[in-house]
# Entry
Amino acid sequence: MITIGEYNTLEIIREAEQGLYLGDGEGEEVLLPNRYVPKEFMIWDKMEVFVYLDNEERPVATTDRPYITKGEFAMLRCSEVAPFGAFLDWGLVKELFCPFKEQAFKMKRGGWYLVYCYLDEDTNRLVASSKTKRFLDNKELTVQQFDEVDLIISHPSDIGMNVIVNNIHSGLIFNDEIFKDLSIGDKMKGTVKKIRSGNKLDISLGKIGYRNIEPNAETILHELEDNGGFLNLTDKSHPDDIKDVLQMSKKSFKKAVGSLYKQKLIELKDDGIYMI
# Structure
């Protein structure tokens, strides 16, 4: 089956005046126009092509690689605004259309926008939407706490920066977790720091490395998280105080703290332990 909006690996079936016809082996064919035909080829050679609809709404193949494919998010530049929507440059001859109803804010020519690409079932055309939140779902999570994830910076809020997690879920990086400039559309790695009620994902930039530390050290990190990143405990604390807070011996406490300190996950001060 030839799929619109995705890369397809197809066989060269025959040559025609307008280009090459490629097939999927199941009877479906699509034209690869002359401008994309390789200098050397043989019938039955396989090619990877991207398939979309041309200006006459016919499926067509291209060897160009668009900046976005179906089911993806990307930053695209608005090249033109028409009476019925905006056209976005996505690296192909025919530009990607974003209807007014799919614009979170009215697009302007020359502006850059984070959009999602999907197939409109009514028209069978690929379209863009800057209302990205509606394409994210946290009802059934595919990630767990401490998983490393792919992030796309989405939009700021009063308490942090909203992010797209693994192209599926929504998450939030709190302001006190942000230590560098972030721009909408930036792609980077992060870690699921915490899963709150309602499957809300708290995200940390970079790796936390919790799975590589001993259980007592992990207990201390969890306690730090629950107490705003601070514990009023030191190596001079009474063993009973340590036991009441962490349910571990002072010896185990000192060993775990030493491990966390070496990994630069905590900072030790006279008044207690601070999470980095």
